[in-house]
Amino acid sequence: MQFDISQRAQRLTSSAIREILKVTEDPSVISFAGGIPSPQTFPVGLMKEACARILDFAPHAALQYAPTEGYTPLREWIAERHGVTADRVLITTGSQQALDLLAKVLIDPGSRILVENPTYLGALQAFSLFEPILTPIECDGEGIVPGALTEETILGARFVYTMPNFQNPTGRRLPVSRRRQLVAAMKAANIVVIEDDPYGELDYSGEPLPTLLSMNPDGVVYLGSFSKIIAPGLRVGYAIAPMPLIKKLVQTKQASDLHTSGFAQRMVYEVLDTGFLDAHLSQIRALYMAQRGAMLASLASHCALSMSWNAPEGGMFLWARVPDSVDAVRLLEKSLAHENGSRVAFVPGAPFYAGKVDAHTLRLSFVTVPPARIEEGVAQLASTLAMLL
Ligand code: PMP
Fold first, then answer.
1. Does ligand 1 have an atom closer than 6 angstroms to the CB of 252?
2. CA 198 / ligand 1 centre spacing (Å)
3. Which residue has the higher pLDDT, 20 or 184?
4. Buried-most residue among 40, 155, 169, 310 (CB within 10 A)?
5. Which residue's CA lies nearest to atom 13 of ligand 1?
């Protein structure tokens, strides 16, 4: 049978890089590619207890249909943490769903939207289905360059999408002064800011910076997630938005999935209610900091002459660059083709760009590979790179 696939769905394609990276399912591959948290951090014991409590004390409510807005105690917990009222919090099925809902609510075909360059690939995918015109904003090692926010560039845009903390893919963090400039420029131009912040709690500097939401609660939609601090398999995230937008997002979500799993929301709330989060976050930060240290030390000893890289103050990724003569996709292919020696995976930077592509960049995750294998993987990557130089 021939299927008449919609033009919208026809625009979706599988990325060539995703195909290449399929081999990372083989455990013998040392993969710095995954954007996934370390399973060591999942609070399995607490979740078993939480699950038993839910089924003992509220089995019917937990297994029944529930309001689209989300489980009230969880919304209240989030609202308190961010200093907003609970009616501005919508629980979503991962923050990825919030990106999809925002695209549906804010983008018409041809709407102009502003994105960092490079930016999160999953956001580009969610937005692109609704046919916006993407305007990439110039970024440097600290994120969006305030000078690039000229009237000509931003005027008429529906929103700007930004990750001020430990951006995916680059690990960059936007300094406070730039946060203020960004918020002020968008406020003056009456443009909504979408602040995507799944990595904000993974701050190794000890000095968290104020959210854009706190700088202009009426002009910012803040997206949070429990994926990186509890477990991504629960699929629980949230959006904090001004009331007129919340209403539209709720209507859109209703059409999409009625509500996020009430059982999963209660699991998150029960685990949070034990008060474990602060101690848990300290453990995650200590683990990831050690892994970041291992990757930085390995890069310094094996790649100092052939690569440059940054040292992010949080999150899961660092951003590296190989010499102009080497294409990062070619390096990945070569790196996965080894017959003797470890095969090493990473994500080439190209697909993250909405504008001018730097084909010599790559994203390295330091959180899923244990330190001893990080060293082995980086050494192998250095020797593969040397073969291409
Ligand atoms: N935003 C960013 C920047 C991400 O990196 C991710 C996950 N990789 C998401 C959103 C989606 O996360 P989730 O749906 O698990 O909350």
1. no
2. 6
3. 184
4. 169
5. 94
Which helix H or strand E contains 126, and what residues bound it?
helix 121-128
Residue 256 CB neighbour total at 10 angstroms: 15
Q: From its phi and psi, is residue 249 left (phi > 0), alpha (psi between -120 and 50) or beta?
A: alpha
In short, whether 96's Cβ falls inside 6 Å of ligand 1 is yes
The answer to whether 40 and 368 have CB atoms below 8 angstroms apart is: no
Check if 163 has its Cβ closer than 6 Å to any atom of ligand 1: yes
Indicate the average pLDDT of the chain. Answer: 95
Q: Which domains does the chain have, with CATH numbers?
A: 7-42+278-388 (3.90.1150.10), 62-272 (3.40.640.10)
Nearest in space to 352 (alpha carbons), one of 36, 205, 177, 139: 139
Atom of ligand 1 nearest to the CA of 96: 14
The interface predicted TM-score of the complex, written ipTM, equals 0.99
**Could you identify the atom of ligand 1 that is nearest to the CA of residue 95?**
16
CA 264 to chain centre: 20
pLDDT tens profile 14-72: 777 787 788 888 888 999 998 899 999 999 999 999 999 999 999 999 999 999 999 99
**What DSSP state is assigned to residue 28?**
T
106 vs 249: CA distance, rounded Å: 10
Residue 94, ligand 1, Cβ within 6 A: yes
Q: How far is the CA of 242 from the centre of ligand 1 (A)?
A: 21
Are the C-beta atoms of residues 378 and 295 closer than 8 Å to each other? yes
